[in-house]
Amino acid sequence: EVQLVESGGGLVQPGGSLRLSCAASGFTFSSYDMHWVRQATGKGLEWVSAIGTAGDTYYPGSVKGRFTISRENAKNSLYLQMNSLRAGDTAVYYCAKGTLHVMDVWGKGTTVTVSS
Amino acid sequence: EIVMTQSPATLSVSPGERATLSCRASQSVSSNLAWYQQKPGQAPRLLIYGASTRATGIPARFSGSGSGTEFTLTISSLQSEDFAVYYCQQYNNWPPLWTFGQGTKVEIK
Question: Phi and psi at residue B80, in whole multiples of 5°?
Answer without folding.
Answer: -60, -35
